[in-house]
Amino acid sequence: MTVEYVAVIALVVEVAVMALARFGTERRHWKHHKNGGPAPRREDDLTRASGLLYGIAAAAVAVAAAVTRVDLTLPAVGTFAMFGILLPAFAANSVMVLASRGHRTEVTGWQRALAYAVAAGGGLVSVGLTG
After folding, report:
1. CA 99 from chain center: how many Å?
2. 52, 37, 53, 36: which is closest to 91 by C-alpha?
3. Quick check: 92 and 119 in contact, CB under 8 A?
4. Residues of 78-110 as b/e, b for ≥16 C-beta within 10 angstroms?
5. Closest among 130, 131, 128, 123 to 14, alpha carbons compared
6. 51-94 tens-digit pLDDT
7. Which of 9, 65, 114, 116 is the most exposed place for a label (fewest CB within 10 A)?
């Protein structure tokens, strides 16, 4: 299995995790609308990832690009920004939303570590999408 295949698999997994988190968020919003359940939180938004998640993904992309000696053309940098930084950070934030049902303050240490691993892993394998 080549790096390209691993990168595509990681991309599919990231999108699946984000979709699951979004479906859970929409379910909570629908329950609130229909049954008067608890009001939705601003933390339910998957795109409100912390700067730390972006930093972890960016550092992983930089390391992977330096190790594999990728040509830093404009399309490669755009690919790194989209698939190496944004999507892994959103997926990592989705992990925390799924783990805590939107209560970011209730995320435990191992759940936060899993989110950091998702951000770093997504950044590392994004190099395979430029080849």
Report:
1. 14
2. 53
3. yes
4. ebbeebbbbbbbbbbbbbbbbbbebebeebeee
5. 123
6. 888 899 999 988 988 888 888 888 888 888 888 888 888 888 88
7. 9
